[in-house]
Amino acid sequence: MSLKETIARRPLLAILGGAVGLGVLGGGIYEARLLGGHSRHHGYADLLSQLNDPDAANRVGGRVLDEAEVFEPQVVAHELRRRLKGRELAAVLADDASQGRIVETGGWVLPETLALLCGLAAKTG
Amino acid sequence: MRDTFLFLCAETALDTQKLSKLIFRPATSAWIWFLERLSLSAFADARAIPSGTTFETDIAIVGAGAAGITLALSLARKSLRVLLLESGGGAFDSRTQALYAGTQTGVPYLKLSASRMRFLGGSTNHWGGWSRPLDVSDFEARPWLAHSGWPFPRSEIEPYFPHAQAWIEAGPLVYDNDKSWFDTFGAPLSLGGGGVYTSFFQFSKMRGSVLPTNFGERYAADLKHEPNLSMLLRANVTNIALAHDAQSVDHLKVATLSGRNFTVRPKYTVLATGGIENARMLLASNDVMPQGIGNGNDLVGRFFADHAIPRDTATLVLFDGNLASYYQNNQTDKDGTIFRAALAPTEAFKREHQILGSLATIENSVQLDDLGKAAVATTASSLNVDASNAKMLSVGCGFELSPDPDRRLMLTRERDALGMPRLQLHMTLADSDYQSYRATLKELGRQLLESRIGMIRLDRATRDEWLSVMDWGNHHMGTTRMSADPKAGVVDPNSQVFGVGNLYVAGSSIFPTYGASNPTMNLVALTLRLANHLKGLFA
Asked: Of the CATH numbers 3.40.50.720, 3.50.50.60, 3.30.420.40, 3.40.50.2000, which one belongs to the domain with range B2-103+214-304+478-538?
């Protein structure tokens, strides 16, 4: 199984499952290089527009990427679109918390969806 | 002898008439004359006791702290002859305090002479008054936690909680059951139905806004006026002498720093000298049982515990800045009850997630760094919450340690001024214990997000980080642990030392598992239970 396949099959919840789990996202930087550096994808406006404070999101997202081992924007975007389809971000984040989908970024306990969005913003912004 | 005796009378209060009733030998006429004629309303000073004297009494209690004083008064009021022996005098004395000194290995910990007070009142001379009953789950054997569990459920001591509450003067037994505080002081945080909830401490009565109930001061008059109770200050028990069959205490050897030596021959003895000295006394009394009294299974001194109190473990952000006053500071209700909130894991959360007890307190305002500001801004805005008035606060806590037989007290070859072997403490602290508390904080963070009222940052991730901010509760526990099984404990469910029929232990040294609650209120409840048991033996 190729690295790309491995990444693609890795459940996002597992990737973002905890403080250490976030570190997995960082590997995406390596993967992006491996796959030809196509990480700066600009087709995520529908997602990033949901962030009311882009500067703050970018700063948080930078920490998300610092602590991640793997972060594949396309995979993340796909999952975010699935979660956010027809729903308000605030409701999804509260639902994340309700379902225990929380992660640590720089010690901050965040809803997983927000961490993914911030990471996507920092990665592609 | 008269001059010496009068000098000592002047220096410390002397209870002589009551003491004379306990004298067995030598009953010299001069000695009796002094004892019978000097003031009744006073304590006796052991330095005035002629060497060679023997006292007989129903019950000897060693140590006049919270447990010893509670027990002594409870028993004396039931017409039992009680002799209360206190190592110190009426005030701090550095030479007496130095008897506590010992050495340490392992994780850095407080000096053995630091946490305790060796004079009348014991450690209530400097306690903080924080009180809270142990949780129900604290008494349970937790399959995932080795060596855990009490030999009885909390319901066994619950009847004593209201009385213990009265002894420590912490107001009515309210804690988590009085919602009127919310009406007066504001609603608690809306944490939903998660694993962390708002729980309450109550506080022992403050005097002059400084100190909570000091048992030595508060109950001095009762101790003096109780006709069946005699109190000897500066009386150090240096040996518990067993009968030849090793199944009972024959007598106690008592010494003073001034060189006097005498004997107490009680029907029953209760050690109430604290979580460290109780073990030391048993280990050092090794003339009949070479391994020490009650130590046939090498348990005395093991399982030492305290509450770990790391500072600034988290940063709590409340988006709207609203926080009821009882979270950050002690409040006093209309009835005079002093209380303060803490954030505690629920019983269900502890059981389901294998979490140790903890009590997190909200402390001081703090500033956020750039990442923190960004995290709050993006989280609040994404939750559609206004955070323009957000309040940022540090979080402290006290958390429970897992029982560890290697965290232990041992005798050394070094001797104190009375010739007793000094102790060495080997301290351990498992990373998993901190991670358990951290999991509770993370659950709190989850609940804050779910309720859209705030968020949290976990400030200490690595062992080095949290050890660097570690403080301690000064709550010595576990070294003479209670069990129904002689192979697993030092005292039985009645607090009697296994195998020694007339020797008992009082205080938090009998706690086999510790919980996160401060021990004083709980140990007083257990002491009242012991008092009932002892009364039954004489009934």
From this structure: 3.50.50.60
